[in-house]
């Protein structure tokens, strides 16, 4: 029997490639540059480090920095989708929460890293929206612990799917700002 959380797994799996960011690369189309003093380096669970020195960054550089931050998160979302899909139907909310907790940590790390960068122009506003979207997804994922019925699981996974879709849209706005190709959610 499939887990009652299989719908969440499918939602996460379907959007993980785009997720709240994407690992797909592409050449940044803009070569605008701006001088910025980047904040201290930060590291995700996957040991991604962002630059720490004052430098002149092009839009392409910012795009690569964005990808360096979101790629480990994307990998984690993909793994979570697989994990949720393979959970036994008998797993309880707290058991699912244990599987979800590492992704919550990865989301928080990505939020911190995204906030630590002085993004150029319109990207700043769109990154701020994306950070908020990641927070909403994080809140959804933190809610599995309290689930006791299949109906609660269905309601939460539907909300999670909606919030992941919003996050994907926010990510595409950032990608556009940074000259990266947008992703497909299909």
Distance between the termini: 26 Å
Helix and strand element order: HEEHHHH
How many helices? 5
Provide the spatial order of strands within the biggest beta sheet. 1-2
Helix content: 55-70%
**What are the segments in which pLDDT stays under 50 over at least 5 consecutive residues?**
23-47
Task: Please characterize this protein's 3D structure.
By secondary structure, the protein is mainly alpha-helical. It has one domain. It has five helices and two strands; from the N terminus they run H-E-E-H-H-H-H. The longest helix has 28 residues. The two termini are 26 Å apart. 41% of the residues are buried. About 13% of the residues have low confidence.
List the helices and strands and how they pair.
Layout: H1 6-16, E1 33-37, E2 54-58, H2 59-85, H3 93-116, H4 121-141, H5 150-177
Antiparallel strand pairs: 1-2
Features:
mainly alpha; two-stranded antiparallel ribbon; 5 helices; 2 strands; elongated
Outline of the structure:
This protein has 186 residues and is mainly alpha-helical. The chain has one domain (6-23, 30-177). The protein is built from 5 helices and 2 strands.
